[in-house]
Amino acid sequence: MKLQHQVVLSIGSNQGNKLENIQKCIDLIHQKVGSVVKVSKLYETPAWGFESDAFYNCALLLYTNSSAQKILNQVLKVEKELGRIRSNQKGYQSRIIDVDLIVFDNEIIDSEKLQVPHPLMQNRNFVLLPIRDLKLNWKHPILHKTILELIAITPDESVCTVVQDLKRPIDEIPLNQFNYIAFEGNIGAGKTTLVHKIAEDFNGKTVLERFADNPFLPKFYKDQNRYAFPLEMSFLADRYQQLSDDLAQFDLFKDFIVADYHIFKSLIFAKITLQEDEYRLYRNLFDIIYKEMPKPDLYVYLYQNTERLLQNIKKRGRAYEQNIEASYLEKINNGYLEYIKSQTDLNVLIIDVSDRDFVKKHEDYIFILNEIKKKLS
């Protein structure tokens, strides 16, 4: 099940350097609107409904958390940035760039400013043929037909010719060169949300910590001294089993594994929560387990200041977390930083996300990807 919206945009240009216009448009959409995860081939198509130079057209698949109306507003800004001036003149016109929102999940939207699916898509080869390249598992929610079925019955007889392939912006960050990436961060840093998004965008297999299933966690936040040891032992056992199982099971349909924790976090938390004698016992067992565990090819630590962490914790509203103190979060952060300093054979990247909101702001998500890209180069 996809957590993000799946959006199809159609792009066209018949003025100036058409190829450059379209590639710039794709890149800007990826930077400012959402993750461009698929791009069709580039087609040359005759002008539709008026006499003019031929168009270049393509389609792309976008993953985003934004609403359809917000996406429309954003792509209009992209058009304007590329030099499109919309006039009140009726009818079809030549244009340096044109972006249409064709599909938004399986939704039907019929408002004054937006109609989805695009009401004319079934009558336009320059829309249908590029969308076919995206190989979507999608059926028109009104006409109840697939893209291939719509192509078979379209009244449009215009010839659309493939010109060339187009670059997919997401390929510039080849995360699939890693087998296993671990994202870490303090409580409330947003690592799980980020892992979900990266896995969807880059076709990764997620390994997510099963903290919600731990019966000792709510008890621990009420009485730390009493429940710290059983909590840490149960976490260690569960993390060991989960990572052992998931890392051993290669998924032919996924390019890499991305996790929202690394097993060493067990020791970081245990050092903070356990009494000295409990910690010694715990450490002996941990050292045995740790030797057997595969290390991530890339370890990313999301640093966030304590004030933001407390805001995030309050916002997500888990009852048992609401009394977490700033001093506890600071101890955890210091534990992570000490661990990172001590690691000589781990490929570590620290990203400061204190002033970033990569859930609501796509630019902040792109910032994180660019930091990873720098690490790759």
Automatic annotation (TrEMBL):
Its EC number is 2.7.6.3. Residues 181-374 form the Deoxynucleoside kinase domain. Belongs to the HPPK family. Keywords: ATP-binding, Folate biosynthesis, Kinase, Nucleotide-binding, Transferase. Pfam families: dNK, HPPK. This is 2-amino-4-hydroxy-6-hydroxymethyldihydropteridine pyrophosphokinase. GO terms for biological process: folic acid biosynthetic process; tetrahydrofolate biosynthetic process. One of its GO terms (molecular function) is ATP binding. Catalyzes the transfer of pyrophosphate from adenosine triphosphate (ATP) to 6-hydroxymethyl-7,8-dihydropterin, an enzymatic step in folate biosynthesis pathway. Residues 8-134 form the 7,8-dihydro-6-hydroxymethylpterin-pyrophosphokinase domain. Pathway: Cofactor biosynthesis; tetrahydrofolate biosynthesis; 2-amino-4-hydroxy-6-hydroxymethyl-7,8-dihydropteridine diphosphate from 7,8-dihydroneopterin triphosphate: step 4/4. Transmembrane segments: none annotated. The keyword tRNA-binding does not apply. It comes from the Bacteria.
